[in-house]
Amino acid sequence: MTKPISPALAPAGSAPDPARASTPRTTAAGPKMDGVSWAMLLMLSLLWGGSFFFTEVALRDLPPFTLVLARVALASVILWLVIAARRIALPAYHPIWISFMVMGLLNNLLPFSLIVWSQTYIASGLAAILNATTPLFTLMIAHIATDNEKLSSRKVIGVVTGFIGVLIVTGIPAFDGLGQAKGIIGNEDLSLATIAPFAVLIAAMSYGCAAIFGRRFKNTPPLVTAAGQTTASSLMLVPIVCLVDAPWTLPVPGLPTWLAVAGIASISTALAYLLYFKLLGRAGASNLALVTFLIPISAILLGFCFLGEALGTNDIAGMLAIGLGLAIIDGRPLSWLRKTLLSPKSATGA
């Protein structure tokens, strides 16, 4: 029996995929965000924002690289089980498996490793601010590498406004954390602390490259793309974990750690990446990168709702700034406001 043809191999001129018929329209400036895309973006930010809860628990028993490996490896197992249960055809096109390796490198291994290493030397607040430059890098890379996601003044203004919102939420004093992490003793370590922020910037650039590179999977089922990427990341992480963490020497983690790993793998990785690739195919790389602005908000709101954490004035102001930036990028709220203010009824006071 021959295997069914994968959507990734569908010949040109074949019948259109009905699942893609509902995608938002595309203009010269790139794909437009519609209500469904914004809902998916918000959901993705919640899934990734929730990873902070799981990570905080799991890191009590597991070193960072071991946790990352457990996260992506378990996520890949979950995704392959779903693929098998749904009997989704796998692409027979061999180079696509190489593409999964590249995607795993750009979207998981490289940024995860750089951010984990950098946080040995810099405060988490600074790392969060630098990571929020991802949409800026994505806009520039998309402008250079794509034909339908070009820079526009509205996008630039919106992204800069959103970034200012992240600065307000995270707090400018986070920059004071440079070099304050424990273990910095000699001049050599201080030199590493000086370059650590650039490691996070490279990670943000890597995320931007991954979003652009991931466009090639738009005709591949998102489940297959997510499983291929997490599997590739797992294979590349194994030698790093063995060399750095030697996990076989670690004590057996407790039940809370196992539950946290299960949560971060199933909810914040497997489900999140399924949504990630669906949104990438629907809204484009530039719009997908906006999730970086929403993740701090999601983490703060989850902490406020479930952990009783305080919601400060800077949090509210930052959220409003991020919301304004997203509204500018979307364009529709400002267009509605302009039409309302300039309508004949508004002008006459009727």
Pick out the low-confidence regions: 1-21, 177-185
Beta-strand content bin: under 5%
What is the helix tally?
Answer: 15
Q: Total number of β-strand segments?
A: 2
Mean pLDDT value: 79
End-to-end C-alpha gap = 72 Å
Question: What Rg do the Cα atoms give?
Answer: 21 Å
**Order of strands across the widest beta sheet?**
1-2
Morphology call: globular
What's the main sheet like? 2 strands, antiparallel
The assigned structural class equals mainly alpha
Order of helices and strands: EEHHHHHHHHHHHHHHH
Query: Could you estimate the helical fraction of the residues in percent?
Result: 55-70%
Task: Tell me what you see in this structure.
This protein has 350 residues and is an all-alpha fold. 69% of the residues lie in helices and 1% in strands. The protein is built from 15 helices and two strands. It has helices at residues 35-49, 51-58, 64-86, 95-118, 124-131, 134-145, 153-170, 187-213, 222-244, 255-283, 285-288, 291-306, 313-330, 332-342, 344-348, and strands at residues 26-27, 30-31. It has a two-stranded antiparallel ribbon with strand order 1-2. A hairpin with a 2-residue loop joins β1 and β2 (30-31). α2 runs antiparallel to α10, α3 (64-86) packs across α10 and α4 (95-118) packs antiparallel against α8 (187-213). The longest helix has 29 residues, at 255-283. It is globular, with a radius of gyration of 21 Å. Residues 1-21 and 177-185 have low confidence and may be disordered.
